[in-house]
Structures are given as structure tokens and as C-alpha cells.
Specification:
Keywords: Membrane, Transmembrane, Transmembrane helix. With 195 residues, this protein is an alpha+beta fold. The protein has one domain: 4-Layer Sandwich (Deoxyribonuclease I, Chain A). The protein is 17% helix and 34% strand. The protein has a 6-stranded mixed beta sheet with strand order 4-5-6-7-11-8, with helices on one face. The radius of gyration is 16 Å and the shape is globular.
């Protein structure tokens, strides 16, 4: 696997990932308190670096740049906790920062705690906003199996450059791990047509 993107890592700054970091450059934003946290790990065969432009945002977010065959790739992940007021504003701010950066391909992952299966004006506004800025939302099945219903909280979006076919030579395998309150991990379903 080349790239891992993990939300709700439940890591704190004292947690050590030495066994994992032998083959990967690890970029993470931990929470001081319980829960949360985001992480992107890129195999050390690739030239990768943290994007500092996201550090000032008020969200749990990490951005990583990868250069592959002179192609600039941006991978970000954002966790928006359920109690966050106005999550759409966090997303707008994130997209504004992304649009100022100069990358050939942009991938945005995350647990936004917005149910994208819900038929509402609010959800449609978010989808329209993302599409207006060139992003395609790629997960279309439930990712959160709750006792009472299934929800789609976890998101994978991408914006591709016309040279996308060249980029397909780099196989980014996404292991997108989400932790429910019981800390059981499961793999999200991704619309595979982009690969």
C-alpha cells in the first residue's frame, strides 16, 4: 500500500508509531483530549511533505503533498466532530485554501458527520458547492452502520487535472479506517470507477 488516510485515530501526541513509520512518512494531527485525530501516511518511496497552509484552520485536518513524475498531488483529510456548529463553513474554508494551492490532483477524505444520504437542501447545497468547484463525491453507500439506520458520514472526493490518466500509474491504495464508538474498524466502500 502506498497511502493510508485515517480519521478518528484516537491518538495523542505521546503515542508512538515507530513500527509503522519504518516504511512510511507519517503526517498527523492529534487531539489532546479523547477521540478525534487525523493521519496521512505515505510510503517513503514517494517524495511527500506536509502542507502548512491547513494548520491555521479550526478543524482537525492534515494536508500532504506528493510529487510523482513531476505531478503534484494533494491529499487532505478532515474530521468534523458531530457537535461542530456550521460544518459547511469548515468545508468552504477548506476548499478556499485548496483552490489557492497549485496541485494537479486533489483528494479530500474525511468524516464530516454530515449524512450525505439525507435528502435535504443543506446536503444538496454542500454537494452543489463541491461540484461547482470541480470535486466529485465518490462514496455513495452507507459508511456508518448505526443501530437505527445507516448513514453516509465518510467522504472521499477528488478533483482531477486533464492529465489524470498519467496519474493512474501511481496506485494509491486507500485504507480508510473509521472508528465507531466501540472502536471497531471497518473499511469504507469507494466508487472504484475513478481508478
Amino acid at each position: 500500500m502506498d497511502v493510508f488516510v485515517i480519521n478518528e485515530t484516537w491518538l495523542n501526541p505521546n503515542d508512538d508509531l515507530n513500527d509503522f513509520s519504518e516504511n512510511f512518512n507519517i503526517y498527523r494531527k492529534d487531539r489532546i483530549t479523547h477521540g478525534g485525530g487525523v493521519l496521512v501516511a505515505v510510503h517513503n518511496n514517494y517524495n511527500s511533505y506536509e502542507i502548512k497552509d491547513f494548520n491555521e484552520l479550526q478543524s482537525e485536518i492534515i494536508g500532504v503533498g506528493i510529487i510523482y513524475n513531476k505531478i503534484k498531488i494533494l491529499i487532505t483529510t478532515i474530521y468534523i466532530p458531530p457537535q461542530t456548529s456550521k460544518p459547511f463553513e469548515h468545508l468552504k474554508t477548506l476548499i478556499k485554501v485548496i483552490l489557492k494551492l497549485n496541485y494537479d490532483h486533489v483528494f479530500v477524505y474525511g468524516d464530516w458527520n454530515i449524512d450525505f444520504l439525507e435528502q435535504s437542501k443543506y446536503v444538496n447545497d454542500i454537494i452543489n458547492f463541491m461540484q461547482t468547484h470541480g470535486f466529485c463525491i465518490c462514496i455513495n453507500e452507507p459508511t456508518y452502520p448505526a443501530n437505527d439506520s445507516k448513514k453516509l458520514y465518510d467522504v472521499f472526493t477528488y478533483k482531477k487535472h486533464p492529465l489524470f490518466l498519467i496519474f493512474q500509474n501511481l496506485v494509491i491504495t486507500l485504507l480508510y479506517i473509521l472508528f465507531s464508538k466501540s472502536k471497531r474498524a471497518f473499511k469504507s466502500k469507494i466508487n472504484r470507477e475513478i481508478f
